[in-house]
Design brief:
Layout lengths: L12 E6 L4 H12 L4 E8 L7 E4 L2 E4 L1 E2 L10 E4 L3 H13 L3 E4 L11 E2 L12 H4 L1 E3 L3 H16 L2 E9 L7 H15 L31 H14 L4 E5 L9 E9 L5 H9 L4 E3 L11 H4 L5 E8 L6 E8 L3 H15 L2
Parallel strand pairs: 1-2, 1-6, 2-5, 6-7, 7-9, 8-9, 10-11, 13-14
Antiparallel strand pairs: 3-4, 10-12, 12-15, 14-15
Helix pairs in contact: 1-9, 4-6, 4-9
The structure holds adenosine-2'-5'-diphosphate.
Amino acid sequence: MMERFLPEKEEGYVVAVVGATGAVGQVMLEILAERKFPIAKVIPVASSRSAGSTVSFNGKDVVVQDLATFEPEGVDIALFSAGGGTSKEHAPRFAEAGCYVVDNSSAWRMDEEIALVVPEVNPEALEMARYNRIIANPNCSTIQMVVALKPLHDAVPIERVNVSTYQAVSGAGGVAIEELAKQTGALLNGQSAEVEVFPARIAFNVIPQIDVFMEDGYTKEERKMMDETVKIMGADIAVTATAVRVPVFYGHSEAVNITFGGDMDADRARDLLADADGICVVDDPATEDYAMPSEAAGSDPVWISRIRNDNSSRNSLHLWVVADNVRKGAALNAVQIAEILIR
Ligand code: A2P
């Protein structure tokens, strides 16, 4: 049993959502209400552009505060999803005011002093946050993959993972959701598609680039998956990734190939995954039953399908892993971390 992070408060906790007008922030508010997080007061915070407007929480309109002038004193927990630069600048002053920050950006993830947490995988890492009060929420594609890897790795150590992703546009925020909708509408009406957010047209296309290219030829998104997986799993696993954007609104999919250091096969993996927290196995070739983002969107679990032996290599498996990237990949994972902080 972990010692409590925050004292028990009968009246509930003061929770700020920074980036409350964004794609992830909105869902953070929804999930806090849905899971009946004990709340004394919720404070939506965003930029000066939306300060003074309202967002809905539990059926009520709540006025958005301006982050630049917001004083965090008295806030128990702040869920940040307003970009890396905003987190770097403002998370430390929230933490110094005594608030626990759960940050969805990549600003702190690889900082050795900062916990990078997926509750089903490494809740014990939260201990680090007692001193610095900042906790990093991992990259969306990483979260769903490590939830799938953990029960398998606990049974037989994983040596290598090779993953290809099929990532929804919502991972790039509200403007990216709009871009797919607008381009699709324009092209279906015989007009040309304007490209603003993604490096190329996303409607009726797939783009083998997410984030910027690094010197070694990987993209930053791929690098995040490789580095964060090792940090969260706390194991020396060789990870390689290809991250691809697809014209899907919500729900990331991943084709994951795993090599184990000992005996493992598809039947055993299926049993281990079926018993694990946060996972639903849907895998029946006879009825053509498998997970897809169209069905995973709006749901909480990590869905796993196509569990099969890799016939080209010993002790190797293929999995198909799907999750709602805005929920388990971001907002839900952050709220689950907040739930541990108040337990
Ligand atoms: P705003 O609506 O005021 O621009 P998304 O991920 O959907 O693009 O949303 C980004 C979120 O982060 C929005 O809530 C946005 O607020 C917020 N945001 C972006 N930049 C800042 C900033 N400099 N200060 C505070 N909030 C910011």
